[in-house]
Specification:
- With 130 residues, the protein is mostly helical.
- It has one domain.
- It has four helices and four strands, in the order ββααααββ.
- Helix 2 runs antiparallel to helix 3.
- The chain starts with a strand and ends with a strand.
- It comes from Ascobolus immersus RN42.
- This is Pkr1-domain-containing protein.
- One of its GO terms (biological process) is vacuolar proton-transporting V-type ATPase complex assembly.
Length: 130
């Protein structure tokens, strides 16, 4: 819910989270809000599956809980690997920057990709513009 004040509309923390979650889909990198939403979704899925297992005593919910746990572990591992790749790429860019081997395009992509908030637009000549 937004409220208008003299300074303009204010956004509640929940709206800020959901707005950043939707915006994170379109930004490069691994946004924190998307990771939080993923872990929250898997945690709630596990709670529901465990509750259903308790209520029904069905072996099917044991299998579903194991499958969901394996999927959660796989997603967590994949996110950790992506973070490692991003750190390695940043380290290589820093080494290139020190040696002066960083091209104009790479430098521009480094600036845009740093916080994930920059927009990359392609100009008439095919070069990237901010």
């Amino acid at each position: 819910m937004t409220t208008d004040s003299a300074e303009g509309p204010s956004i509640t923390p929940a709206e800020g989270f959901f707005a950043s979650l939707i915006g994170s889909v379109f930004t490069p990198g691994i946004p924190t809000s998307l990771v939080q939403a993923t872990h929250t979704s898997f945690a709630l899925l596990h709670l529901i599956l465990l509750w259903l297992l308790y209520m029904t005593r069905s072996i099917h919910f044991v299998a579903l809980t194991v499958i969901a746990g394996c999927l959660w572990g796989t997603v967590t591992w994949f996110l950790a690997e992506l973070k490692k790749v991003d750190e390695e790429a940043e380290r290589l860019r820093a080494v290139k920057r020190e040696k002066g081997e960083l091209t104009e395009d790479e430098a521009e992509l480094t600036e845009v990709g740093k916080d994930g908030s920059g927009d990359v637009k392609v100009g008439k000549e095919g070069k990237k513009e901010k």
